[in-house]
Design goal:
Blueprint (H helix, E strand, L loop, with lengths): L3 H5 L2 E6 L3 E6 L5 E6 L1 H13 L7 E6 L5 E6 L3 H17 L12 H9 L5 H7 L4 H23 L12 E3 L5 E3 L3
Antiparallel strand pairs: 1-2, 2-3, 3-5, 4-5, 6-7
């Protein structure tokens, strides 16, 4: 077993979610550690390992002396997703799909509405035609989110937690789910 202090030596708190804390390393900038309860870490790490097209690589899973578990995973680019989703959100606001002045009327909700059939993906795609770069980015994300949602639901989760901070790009620019 590894001590949390051994992980934290040379590591920086990188944030977290309701069920985990994330740490980065000065020694290896290409990995992060997600630390959480045993059942939670073991469940999502198995799902991550089962489909590397959708999830980051999991290099190692282990137990800490304090009883919590950790997973060493591929560190991905979250900042670019936040920027891209911001650009998409602006474009969707221009065509009347979202209104960022209204609480929760964001790109996150637009993607949820499209995937649940409450918003016509074809119309949105057509309405974005004046900006081919944005249109292509929209298509890339809709296709990815559709595939990821189906996979996550078939893996025993209620659905994909769609918001901009749960996604990242790998080194080749492929979208990945980083939290379920």
């Amino acid at each position: 077993m590894i001590k949390l202090s051994e992980i934290l030596k040379g590591w920086k708190d990188y944030g977290g979610g309701t069920e985990h804390q994330i740490y980065t390393s000065d020694k290896n900038p290409n990995v992060i550690y997600k630390v959480g309860k045993k059942d939670t870490v073991l469940k999502w790490s198995e799902v991550f390992k089962s489909n590397p097209k959708i999830f980051p690589k999991v290099y190692k899973v282990g137990k800490l002396k304090d009883g919590r578990y950790y997973a060493e995973i591929e560190k991905l680019n979250t900042d670019k997703v936040v920027k891209d989703w911001g650009d998409l959100e602006q474009a969707l606001e221009l065509i009347g799909v979202v209104d960022t002045d209204v609480f929760e009327d964001t790109i996150d909700q637009a993607f949820i509405n499209i995937l649940s059939g409450h918003l016509d993906v074809g119309k949105v795609f057509t309405d974005l035609a004046s900006n081919k770069k944005i249109q292509a980015l929209f298509k890339k994300w809709i296709e990815f989110l559709s595939d990821a949602t189906e996979y996550v639901e078939n893996s025993g989760y209620n659905g994909l937690d769609i918001h901009r901070y749960n996604f990242a790009y790998d080194a080749k620019g492929n979208p990945k789910v980083i939290d379920i």
